Amino acid sequence: MNCIELRNVVKKYGKVTALNNVSFTIECGEKVALLGPNGAGKSTTLKLIVGLLRPDNGEVLVKGLDPFSTKARGIIGYLPEDASPYLMLTVRENLEYIASLRGVNNVKDKVDKLLDFLALRQYEKNRVMSLSRGNRQKLALALALIHDPEILLLDEPLNYLDIPTQERVISLLNSMTNATMLVSTHIMSIARRLASKVIVLSNGQVVWQGNISDLKKFGEENEPIESIVARLMESVK
Question: Rounded to an integer, what distance in angstroms lies between the CA atom of residue 115 and that of residue 98?
Fold first, then answer.
């Protein structure tokens, strides 16, 4: 079954076309990277899937449903690129509030587990406005995971995290074998560690998709994504 499907999607911001006739499908249980340079349309794609934007043309489906439906929104966990938890609430209050909205059982146990795993326990009584960017990112990830979503949409999930925390997050995400995951990133090494398939976006269009192992022939993982995309474009001419 397809968990995510885009059919000939077009999205414009005024005169700027962010997505131009984008189509792809992601089967339930797949781990997929949405790879491309800054400005390629990755964040716009995730916002369409989570129901923050509507396409100007085409169709977006989440398990066959309109992303704006209550049922679709209930099965998605979303980490935006510039996450902004409730600044005046404490870390724990943010987690407990979102957990209550999501209908989570055993809220205290679930919150405690995430606080400990993401090394946020010492900040649980601190207001979010006082946190570093790294700790805000960890909280935003915890908020996306609090209800054990079927589908995870993660926009640059390792931003602002130190190396040990990155490794813990990668381990956690890889352990979620039943979840469908779409990870947006401009770094090939992150895509390789979190996904088995990849969709490459450039200038609002899908320029390549397939197994991530097949992408290696177009460049090394430490190369700038712009160089890899240039080789991809040459290969399809």
Answer: 14
- Go through 5-23 and write b for each residue having 16 or more CB atoms within 10 A of its CB, e for each that does not: bbeebebeeeeebbbbebe
- Report if residue 164 sits inside a domain: no
Residues 88, 141, single domain; the answer is yes
Cβ atoms within 10 Å of 122's Cβ, excluding its own: 10
Same domain? For 43 and 155 the reply is: yes
Q: Mark whether 71 and 184 lie in a shared domain.
A: yes
Task: Identify the domain containing residue 90 by its residue range.
Answer: 81-148
Phi then psi for residue 16, to 5 deg, are -95, 125
Is residue 101 domain-resident? yes
Q: What is the pTM of this model?
A: 0.93
Q: For every one of its 237 residues, what pLDDT tens digit does the chain have, with 9 covering 90 and above?
A: 899 999 999 999 999 999 999 999 999 999 999 999 999 999 999 999 999 999 999 999 999 999 999 999 999 999 998 877 889 999 999 999 999 999 999 999 999 999 999 999 999 999 999 999 999 999 999 999 999 999 999 999 999 999 999 999 999 999 998 999 999 999 999 999 999 999 999 999 999 999 988 888 887 778 888 888 888 877 766
